[in-house]
Amino acid sequence: MVAVDNATAAKLLCRSYSSEDETLRRLASSLSRSLADEGIGDDLFDTLEDVLGDRAQPAPEGRVRRADDLLVRLGLPVPQRRHQEKATPLLPVEATRISNSFRRATTHLMQVVPHRVAMYPTEELRLLIAVRDERPDPDQAVAHLRRFAFAIVAILDLMGDE
């Protein structure tokens, strides 16, 4: 943020301005490009790491066993699972915080994406908006946050953000 003294503020407020549509469109486009140049904040990447990283909650044991049984029935090899430390359960307050962070990121991505991709990702943004609008039960919060995180990662991949 920049501090401006009273004399400078008075000069700025007395400047003429335009209400022409073309000027306003050009200004909005410049502001959007400026926003796109700022990029994505590190806090979003930290939140994605919380949801998708190594310390994220593992899938329930019953679901893993069913997947392994299906692989055996199909004659496919069962993957070797490395031992993972138990993650602390996701508290409802934490799930709400992460979900709100992802919703803010969705709004930001919808403004930035048109300026960062060659072809507008209609399907990916449709999926992101659909996941954003879901209101899961508390017992489905982890699965919902993972879907939300994967939808955001898909958009980031298209934008070229690493």
Question: Characteristics of this structure?
Answer:
162 residues
Describe the overall structure:
By secondary structure, this protein is mainly alpha-helical. It has helices at 6-14, 21-38, 42-52, 61-73, 92-116, 122-133, 141-159. The two termini are 28 Å apart. The mean pLDDT is 77.
Mean pLDDT: 77
Largest sheet composition = none
N- and C-termini, Cα separation: 28 Å
Rg for CA atoms: 22 Å
| DSSP helical segment count | 7
- Low-confidence stretches are none
* Percentage of residues in DSSP E strands: under 5%
| Helical residues, percent | 55-70%
Number of strands: 0
Order of helices and strands: HHHHHHH
Q: How would you classify the helix and strand content by structural class?
A: mainly alpha
What would you call the shape?
elongated
Tell me the layout of helices and strands.
Layout: H1 6-14, H2 21-38, H3 42-52, H4 61-73, H5 92-116, H6 122-133, H7 141-159
Quick overview of this protein structure:
The chain has 7 helices and no strands.
